[in-house]
Amino acid sequence: MVLQDLGRRINAAVTDLTRSQNLDEKAFDSMVKEICNALLEADVNVKLVAGLRQSIRRSVNFKELAPGVNKKRVIQKAVFDELVKLVDPHAEPFKPRKGKPNIIMFVGLQGAGKTTTCTKLARWYQARGFKSCLVCADTFRAGAFDQLKQNATKARIPYFGSLTNTDPVAVAAEGVEKFKRERFEVIIVDTSGRHRQEDALFEEMVQIQQAVRPQQTVMVLDASIGQAAEAQSRAFKEAADFGAIIITKTDGAAAGGGAISAVAATHTPIVFIGSGEHLLDLERFDPRAFVGKLLGMGDMQGLMEHVQSLKLDQKDTMKHIASGVFTVRDLRDQLSNITKMGPLSKMAGMIPGLSNAMQGLDDADSAAKLRRMIAITDSMTDKELDSDGKLFVQEPTRMTRVARGSGTSVREVEELLTQQQTMATMAKRMKGGMANMQRAQGAM
Ligand code: GDP
C-alpha cells in the first residue's frame, strides 16, 4: 500500500536530519514538517497530524537535551514512539473463551471485504483450536450467501444462511441459535453492507445486534477509504459500538492514512489487517510492528531495542545485517538469545516469520519448539552455519543428515531454513537503514 511510500518519506526525513551536519532546532522543525506533510498526503486527519507534531516537538526539547546525549537516537525514538501512539488505542483486543459460544458480528460498507474477512477470521480461529462457523445475515445483496458458501466450503467452515428468508434478523438469530446448540465456539455473523451510511442499514444492524448479542462487533474498513474514514467510523461506532477494526486491502494501492484516522477517532484497536484475497491473507495487527514496518525497519526495531537493553553479544549479527547478510549461524545466535530474553511469545513476534511458526503455541510449547530449532543448528557443520542456507537446496541430503543428527524431521529443517531465508531477505532490504542506525548508535 502507499503506506510504504509514507514510511519511506518519513524515514527519509529522519535520515536526512540525522545525516545533516547542523543538527539544530531549525533542521529538526523542517523534519517534523516533512513528516506531517507526508501524513497529510496519506489522508491522515489534520487534527491528528497537528497533535503528532506537538508531541514530537514536546518529546524532543532541544534546549534541555543534556550535552553528550545522542540527539539522533532521541529523535528517531520520538518519531517511532509518536507514530506508535497514533495507531495504538491501548485497548485489549477480544479473546474468545474456550468451550463457550463467542459471537462475533461484522459490520461495514458494501465491498469493504466483510464476507471475505469473515471466512479468513473463522479459519484463523479454527486453526487455533476453536470450533468455528459462519452465519450469513446478508439477505440484501443478491449472491451474498452464495459467496459466503463458496468461501466457507473452500475453508471447510460450517455455515448457515437462507436463500428464501429475506429477514436478516430472523436468519441471524436462527443461525446463531443452531450453532450454539451444536456447541460451536466462534460464531461469526456477516451482515449486509450498503453503498453509504443509510438509516435502514444502521437500523438493521442494531436489530441484528440485539437479536444475536455478540461479544464482539468488528467493523471492516477498506484501506482506501481516505478522508471519509473518520465520519464513517464515528457513525458506525454510534450505532453499533464496534469493539475492533479490521483494515482490508492493505496490499492495494491505497494511501491508508484514513484507516489510521478511524482508529484514533473511535479509540478502537485494529485487530487484524487483510493483506490479499487469499484465505490466509490475514495478519495480526501490532502497532509497534506496524510502525516498524512502515519505517522500513521490519519488526526488528523492537527486537534491536530489546536486545540492546539486554546487552547480549550481538556484534556479528548486527554487522551482518548492516551489510545485508543473514547466515544460518545468525539465526542460531538469535534463537539462543531469545531463550534468555523472556516472554517467548512477545519475542517471537518481533522476528519476522518466527511469529507464524509460534502462532497458537503457549510459552512452554514455544520453548520446546525453539529447543528443537537450536538442536537442528547444533547438527550443522561450520560451513553450513556460516552459509546463506542455499547449499541445503543444492544438496538436499544435507537436510536429511541434519534431521537425523538432531532427532527432528526434514520438514522441520526446511522450516528453519525458510525462516533464515525470510530474515536474509529482510536483512538485504534493511541494509541502508541498519547501517544508519548503527552509525547513530555508535555516536552515542
Ligand atoms: P463485502 O461486500 O464487504 O462482503 O466485501 P467482499 O468480501 O465481497 O469483498 C469485496 C472485494 O474485496 C472482493 O473482491 C474481495 O476479494 C476483495 N478483498 C477483500 N479483502 C481483501 C484484501 O485484504 N486484499 C485484497 N486485495 N482484496 C480483498
From TrEMBL:
Biological process per Gene Ontology, one example term: SRP-dependent cotranslational protein targeting to membrane, translocation
Key words of the record: Cytoplasm, Endoplasmic reticulum, GTP-binding, Hydrolase, Nucleotide-binding, Ribonucleoprotein, RNA-binding, Signal recognition particle
Signal peptide: none
Listed GO MF terms: 7S RNA binding; endoplasmic reticulum signal peptide binding; GTP binding; GTPase activity
A GO cellular component annotation in the UniProt record: signal recognition particle, endoplasmic reticulum targeting
Reaction equations catalysed: GTP + H2O = GDP + phosphate + H(+)
Subcellular locations according to the entry: Cytoplasm; Endoplasmic reticulum
Nucleotidyltransferase found in the keyword field: no
Domain notes: The NG domain, also named G domain, is a special guanosine triphosphatase (GTPase) domain, which binds GTP and forms a guanosine 5'-triphosphate (GTP)-dependent complex with a homologous NG domain in the SRP receptor subunit srp101. The two NG domains undergo cooperative rearrangements upon their assembly, which culminate in the reciprocal activation of the GTPase activity of one another. SRP receptor compaction upon binding with cargo-loaded SRP and GTPase rearrangement drive SRP-mediated cotranslational protein translocation into the ER. The M domain binds the 7SL RNA and the signal sequence of presecretory proteins.
Entry's family note: Belongs to the GTP-binding SRP family. SRP54 subfamily.
Assembly and oligomerization: Fungal signal recognition particle consists of a 7S RNA molecule (scR1) and at least six protein subunits: srp72, srp68, srp54, sec65, srp21 and srp14.
Function: Signal-recognition-particle (SRP) assembly has a crucial role in targeting secretory proteins to the rough endoplasmic reticulum (ER) membrane. SRP is required for the cotranslational protein translocation for ER import and preferentially recognizes strongly hydrophobic signal sequences. It is involved in targeting the nascent chain-ribosome (RNC) complex to the ER and is proposed to participate in the arrest of nascent chain elongation during membrane targeting. SRP54 binds to the signal sequence of presecretory protein when they emerge from the ribosomes.
Name recorded for this polypeptide: Signal recognition particle 54 kDa protein
Shown residues within the full chain: 1 to 444 of 536
